[in-house]
Here is the input.
Amino acid sequence: MDTLALLLQGFEVALTPTNLMWALVGSILGTAIGILPGIGPALTIALLLPVTVSVGPVSAFIMFAGVLYGAMYGGSTTSILINTPGEAGSMMTALEGNKMARSGRGAAALATAAIGSFVAGTIATLLLTFAAPVVAELAFLLKPADYFALTILAFTSVAVVMGASRVRGFVSLFIGLALGVIGIDAMTGQPRMTFGSAALLDGVELTVVLVSLFAIGEILYVASRYSGSKDEIVAIKGKAFMTREDWRRSWKPWLRGTAIGFPIGTIPGGGSEIPTMLSYTLEKKLSRHKDEFGKGAIEGVAGPEAANNASAAGVLVPLLTLGLPTSATAAILLAAFQNYGLQPGPFLFTSNPELVWGLIASLYIGNAMLLVLNLPLVGIWVKLLQIPRPQLYAGILVFAVMGIWGVSGSVFDLGLMAALGVLGYVMRVYGFPIPPLLIGLILVPLTENQLRTALAAGQGKVSVLFETPISVTFLLISFLFLFMPVLLKRLKKAA
Here is the structure.
């Protein structure tokens, strides 16, 4: 069926009163958690997983999409007003946005961030609309060896790109792989790494791991570094909207940011940090107002914010078409699919078209909702920054524990949550990245299954893994991810 016809069907699903309500709830929640420092979309979706089990999958994912996009919008507010990014993708916005706010141009900074997010989000969703079906069709051509090579690429790229060092990235990845193989082996029926505990025969519950690492670990980290000092909030001054000059200087960075953010969001390890940094660097080089950078250049807000939102849509392309998460939030969304007994991939487009197209259509609707929520109501959102940190994180802790207990009713899971929470805290303190652990945990069943299937088809010959051009290409890229940084470093020293 034609893509436009499928999209129209998606709008029929997304525009029902129930799904519109969930889109609004997700947009409001996303904006709120984006504004509150230290609470990102990954943590929020992880906390919502236990309480959305009774909600239909279409409504749940429409709400999750609102949370994802809303966090991108809301993160710019704290970056601009208190120089503290609400989420990682807003780091570059803080460089120029806070300077604009301090010089009395906070309203213009907030406006270019919100409108840039809307423009980039809409264009990126259009690209997602037409790219996803094409990638899904191509995915039918992939053989088990190709899927295995693709997961190896995901493992190596996130381990190398994310974190302070490759060693820490791979340690995190291997912890995730170890957690992922706990339980009964699907092919042999034998228990693995259960240590005689019947509670581990079904494996480690994904929701427990996600809530532990993101909620409990983050709470322990914040508590250990809590000083009691209050952030200074810069008052919103200046004209309520952008001037003609602001528009002239912003529209090209919006488009360039979108062009950078969307493709980088689709690759493993791309995330939102890399495209925003690239966008900021590019705008600094191209701007006619280089002297303003570091003092409050509007291009330094417009470009990174557009790249940030475009990368969020880019993340959904490999997730929906291949079942491949390229960021921590995508990994949690994949876990949410699995909670509903769904496996993202090419078959999802034929088995659950109302879910896929309803989700894509809701992105257009959510974008429009977020523009209305953010531009005129920014004064209300800023008041969230007045919530005391102890009360805020205590509420998150109670919500997390109640969610896990409500889903499993298991004392063992609560104990496991506490232990993994301490692990998350230690990883945060010593700079071990969380995303490789999550991606290792979630993808290891797929990797193992595809490896065994490929070897069975090749009668145990390892050469079967290198027989197709696609698998060789993926493995070669993985090899480059591993060794290229080392080679470049040695060449630089030799020169």
